[in-house]
Write a structure and sequence with these properties.
With 540 residues, the protein is of the alpha/beta class. The protein is built from 23 helices and 16 strands. It has a seven-stranded mixed sheet with strand order 6-7-14-11-10-8-9, sandwiched between helices. Helix 1 packs across helix 8 and helix 13 runs parallel beside helix 14.
Length: 540
């Protein structure tokens, strides 16, 4: 397998590609290479001298050959000369590099600062004559090309090289899941430290007013979002809602609608949700219903929200009769899963998110289960104060990425939950009933964990799976600190709520069960005695 650069930096002369690139390489303990230096080694003379002797076309040919070689044989941070991305051959090579998972970074410096640095550097053949006029002309030509060629755009206005390097490092280490489908507008889920920095980029230039919906416990993260939004030039309306499921009510939604109306929000404005699953559910519901739909971005701050509630386009509120019975299917413009926010999570809130992670492993991606097995002790002992920069951070980022990919697969094929998407509800029929009977004091991921054990017991009683797989459910979930039993209500109460489940058809129950790991089927109207016996078994 050929070695590829971790990142390729492009940008205008004077943008700081070399300085910032060296800082990034040092932070990541990687080598750094500059295309211009490599070219001078190749031709045996300085670039201005080569320009003068052989002309620009000959230089660009050598430049393309050197870059092509480095893209297949260098494993560090690689900075290109300002004119390199304008060459079609280089553009093709960079496109191939991106398709192979590479990060081409457009380093977007303040033009005035970049011009000044370019002058100080001297010896630039492309700035011969009136340097200011030449730089501006080149900028007008190159900026749209840089923007198109790059898949990472880093603004460094007013930042020190070290600060710019840290920002770039966060962005190039991000994981991205692209969600697409015939019935939805494409969007990206960005996963990694600093993902929230994309907020203005995802919102775009059109919105003027932003409704920032969040809960009080995530004030630190909403403060950061507010700062980023104001730096982006948006007018921000700060809207605090009750925490957890108490915020997902028609009364809370109505209060937000009233405020949006009073403050003159139009269809071109937008909503940003910051917080756990309940907050992002409500933010999406408000966005879907205000003027029949406005742009919105989710910034989940819990593991559960990152892997479940904030992605997929399901929005909703609760009613006295059940959870999420009122809602809509409405996709976000983007989801920014900033892993920095996980550092503020208490241990129990982190662990409940693992319930939804495990679910994705059971229904489609068995590698998730293997990762959970290998790191169960570390995950169970999660400590936010030591999380960032630890080996566990990369493990969690991979789990988030894999789980989101599972959800994206089902959503892209079935946005409105008519068939395939229902498989994402593995463990949810019983889980939602538990949440309701516990008056939402049980967290969603914990309830889903018990719900998966129930579904496994039911599938075993019907003859779909063997006892070993039931036992595996219990042992894996318990190893991470998740519950596997519940004694909080009667079977009659549970049965009544299961009949109200969204998967139910008329008076017939419908469950999602496994017939093997990674393969899910619908179980319609199972025998009543099996439904009750499975319930008895989760009480033990």
């Amino acid at each position: 397998m050929p070695t590829r650069p971790v990142a390729v930096i492009i940008g205008m002369m004077g943008a700081g590609k070399t300085r910032v690139g060296k800082e990034v390489a040092q932070l990541m303990s990687l080598p750094f290479a500059d295309a211009d230096v490599e070219i001078e080694h190749e031709v045996g003379m300085r670039i201005p001298e080569y320009f003068e002797r052989h002309g620009e076309p000959a230089f660009r040919e050598v430049e393309s050959e050197v870059i092509a070689g480095m893209l297949h044989g260098f494993g560090g941070v690689f900075a290109l000369g300002g004119g390199a991305p304008m060459t079609p051959a280089v553009q093709d090579d960079l496109k191939e590099y991106i398709e192979d998972g590479g990060k081409v970074v457009y380093l977007m410096a303040d033009p005035r600062e970049a011009m000044e640095r370019a002058h100080r550097g001297g010896g630039r053949p492309m700035l011969q004559g009136d340097a200011d006029a030449r730089w501006k002309k080149l900028y007008r030509q190159r900026d749209p090309v840089y923007y198109r060629v790059a898949n990472v755009h880093v603004e460094t206005y007013g930042q020190t090289p070290l600060a710019a390097a840290r920002k770039m490092m966060d962005m190039i280490t991000e994981r991205t899941v692209h969600v697409t489908g015939a019935t939805i507008e494409d969007y990206d889920v960005s996963i990694g430290e600093g993902a929230m920095n994309h907020l203005s980029e995802v919102l775009g230039p059109k919105p003027v007013r932003i409704a920032l919906i969040h809960t009080q416990p995530v004030q630190r993260h909403s403060d950061r979002a507010r700062t980023l939004l104001r730096q982006g030039g948006y007018q921000v309306s700060d809207i605090v809602i009750p925490d957890a499921e108490a915020g997902k009510t028609i009364e809370v939604a109505n209060g937000i609608w009233q405020r949006l109306g009073d403050e003159g929000f139009t269809r071109s404005d937008a909503v940003v949700g910051v917080g756990g699953g309940a907050a992002t559910d409500l933010a999406g519901f408000v966005a879907a219903t205000w003027m029949r739909g406005v742009r919105y971005v989710n910034c989940p701050t819990s593991l559960l929200a990152m892997v479940d509630a904030s992605t997929g386009g399901k929005t909703g509120i609760n009613t006295p009769q059940g959870k999420n019975l009122v809602g809509s299917f409405y996709t976000p413009a983007g989801v920014l899963a900033d892993t920095k926010t996980l550092a503020t999570l208490p241990n129990d809130i982190f662990i409940e998110g693992l319930g939804e992670v495990a679910k994705s492993g059971f229904i489609r991606d068995p590698e998730i289960l293997h990762i959970l097995e290998d790191h169960a002790a570390e995950l169970r002992a999660f400590d936010g104060s030591t999380f960032l920069g630890s080996p566990l951070e990369d493990v969690v980022a991979e789990l988030i990425e894999r789980t989101v990919k599972v959800k994206a697969y089902h959503v892209s094929s079935d946005l409105k939950e008519k068939g395939l998407r229902e498989f994402l509800n593995y463990g949810h029929t019983m889980g939602h009933a538990i949440e309701k009977l516990e008056h939402f004091r049980w967290r969603h991921g914990n309830a889903v964990a018990v719900g998966m054990v129930y579904a496994a017991e039911l599938a075993h009683l019907i003859g779909y799976i063997d006892q070993d797989l039931v036992d595996y459910h219990r042992s894996l979930l318990a190893s991470m600190g998740l519950p596997t039993s519940w004694n909080g209500g009667s079977f009659d109460d549970v049965l009544a709520l299961m009949h109200r489940d969204k998967k139910a058809r008329g008076n017939e129950l419908r469950f999602v069960v496994l017939d093997e790991i990674g393969h899910v089927v619908h179980l319609d109207n199972p025998p009543a005695e099996a439904v009750e016996e499975a319930f008895r078994r989760i009480q033990q």
